[in-house]
Amino acid sequence: MSRYDRLARTPAVRRVQQEMGSADAAERRLRTPDAGPEPLGAAETAFVQGLDGFLFATVNEDGWPYVQHRGGPPGFVHVLDPHTLGYLDVRGNRQYLTTGNLRGGDGRVALFFLDHARQARLKVFGRATAVPADRDPVLAERLATPRTEGRVEQLVTIRVEAHAWNCSQHITPRFTERELADVLGPVRDRLERLDRLERENALLRAELAAATGRAPASPAQD
């Protein structure tokens, strides 16, 4: 069993699985030793660095969960090493709920990376820290390209504890403007050429009509 499953399957979860009849296979896998934090592999690294956003979940001091979206250009979340993610946090609405939760707790977080176009998602458990941007100039420079536009306030790093790929069955395919531009570019070019030809044909019909003294024919009459 992956470390992600081991961390996610608490006693309460396992009791529900037993109730629903899905616990037997999981129980057998739980007998394998815990090998410690799981490193990100090549597939996970490429997936994270190719996305322009993710969901970031923390828990406040009263036990309430909070989920925040973080976005930027593809690659703004950097894989610093197989166990560490990082990004530059820029000024937003200045509520600082996620930062407060990190400082008020033990830093445990859940990250959700979702690619609608490819119907893929990656779940990550980790421990996060957020420190002022001037605390580590070397790391700040390493995270600077690419990064989210705006005033940088913090360096956020996540020490990865575990990760798991999720089922793609119910992910609705959706595409970003950038992804659509790559596909629709040739179509737009062809439409522009057709429009240009129609204008040229209309001009030629008008010139022919002027030369012969006849009314220009409409496209449907050609």
Automatic annotation (TrEMBL):
Pfam families per UniProt = PNPOx_N
**RNA-binding among the record's keywords?**
no
Sorted alphabetically, which Gene3D superfamilies does this protein's record hold? Answer: Electron Transport, Fmn-binding Protein, Chain A
Residue ranges the record marks as coiled coil: 187-214
**Keyword terms, alphabetized:** Coiled coil
Q: Where is this region: Disordered?
A: 1-37
**What name has this protein been given in UniProt?**
Pyridoxamine 5'-phosphate oxidase family protein
Query: Where does the record place the Pyridoxamine 5'-phosphate oxidase N-terminal domain?
Result: 46-135
InterPro entries noted in UniProt: Pyridox_Oxase_N, Split_barrel_FMN-bd
